[in-house]
Amino acid sequence: EERGRDAPTDIEARAWYLYVLSYEYEMLKQLGRDEEALVCVERMEAVYQPLPWLKTWPLIRLERYAEAARTIDATESHGGFSNRVLNDRGALCNNMGRYAESLESMRQFAAAEPDSAIAWSNCGGGALATFQFEEAEKYMLEATKHAGWSSRRSHYLDLASLSLEQRRLPEAADAVRMAANQRAGRAPWTWRHEQGHSDLMTAALLAL
């Protein structure tokens, strides 16, 4: 990283500099250190080109919504990221409380990427936010069909939560079991992402 900063005209050093910064960016984003993640992007842009799509999620989490909207527009203008624009715009609208707009954007994203579990899960969340419970359940079920070995969470837990809220206890218990079965077939490093959610659903079922 120091070499990349000190010798910006050295093509090989610059490539390694960008490589290191890209990993640093991902780690900071995972840790929720969004201000620092944005600094990483700015450093990459200084030696490469504008990267507005990398700024959107940190800006949303920092509630800098006007800036996030501008990065989404810039990403759309750049071209080549049409599906990402739909997902990002849906997330931005959701965080701003514009739930109907968010759901419509997420539906378009799912239509563009029908094999994406995340796309269908986002649709489910959008439908919940607009109190369309049957539609939310349909989207959540679709999400469970597309979870892969490296998926970080089981969308069956979303179904369990919805069923629990509706006091459909047998369906909630089945969904928790299905989540456990699905988790057993996934990469071990993905398990930690949902252990708390799984424990909470189990505790809630036992309490009722």
Quick recap:
The chain is mainly alpha-helical and 208 residues long.
- Helix fraction by DSSP (H/I, runs of at least 4): over 70%
The low-confidence parts are: none
Q: What is the tally of helical segments?
A: 12
Number of strands: 0
How do the SSEs run, as a string of H and E? HHHHHHHHHHHH
- The whole-number mean of residue pLDDT values reads 90
State the assembly state of the protein chains: single chain
| Rg over CA atoms | 20 Å
| Sheet of most strands | none
Euclidean distance between termini CA atoms: 55 Å
Shape designation: globular
Strand content: under 5%
Which structural class is indicated by helix and strand composition?
Answer: mainly alpha
